[in-house]
Each structure stands twice: as structure tokens, then as C-alpha cells.
Here is the input.
Amino acid sequence: MTLKIAIFASGSGSNAENIVRSFLNDSKFEFPIIISNKEDAFIHERAKKINIPSFTFSREDFVKGEPILTFLKKYEIDCIVLAGFLLKVPEVLINAFPAKIINIHPALLPKYGGKGMYGHHVHETVAASGDTESGITIHYVNACYDEGNIIFQAKCPVLPTDTPDMIADKVHALEYEHFPRVIGELWGN
Here is the structure.
């Protein structure tokens, strides 16, 4: 049986593309749709390049949740992967997909999580903190930003001379290496 996974993304979509490409030769996984909350997000260009239809839903649709749930049911989606998705997932989706929605966060949760802590904001905060390490956290999604049960973490060193961009590069490398592998291990059985 093939597992149908929807990817939600708000930005450039590099993680989404990496995930899809990682499973091109794996018949256990299918990525029928990509959903965004931004019409002008570069994820739509990446989706064309990897031949996956992408759709944009409004913030209001995400607040309600029902229009998105109906759409996901139409495509018989089994699981959802958040890959740079910036809106809160509505409870109607969390309830419809228990333990079937995962997110990647560019820090070692519980540090540097929560509303407004995404992308460059996280890396700037890590650089300013004096922390000696950062990394990624892959976690289940619940009703609170970045508070779902942790599935996996990977660390990278942060040097006193590292800029936020240098930290971002290290974290991106961890994301590309580990996110597809964790998805495969989590849902590939």
C-alpha cells in the first residue's frame, strides 16, 4: 500500500523538493499535492519542476480548517509533512490526522520555538545567545506551536564566529540529511 503524504510549505520549498526527490524510487510513498498559504511562494515553482500540483489556501481557510480537510480527503491523504510552513495547523486537521502530522524546526526544541520563531529569526537568536550548538527538531504537531512530542533531533556546533547565515547553512544541511530519512523510518513500515 502506498502512503499518500501532503506537504505544506510557505516559502522557497527546498526541504519539500528534497523530500520528494529522496522518495522518487520508493513505491511506498507518494506526494500527490503541495499546499501553501502564499500564492507567491517559490514552492509553487519547485512543485512544477517536480510535477506535483500545488494549491494555495487563505489564512481564513486555515483558521476554519474544514476547507483544507475536505481537500485532503479528496486526495486520500494519509499524512502531512510541514516543510517550512508558517501557519498554525487547525485543530480540525490535528484531530483528523492524529500522530500523522510532523514538522521540522530549525533549532533544538524546546529552545527557540513558538510563534514567530522560524527561519532566520531562530538563527539570529541562536547566534546572539552564545549557545555552542544548534540543530533540528522533527516533532509531531499539536495545538501549540513547536510543542508536539519530539521524534528526532540532530545537533551541529555553533562557533563564536558563526553568523546567523553560517548557522542556517549548518542547520539546512541537517534538514536535508535527516528529514527524508526520519519520514521513511516513521511511516515506511
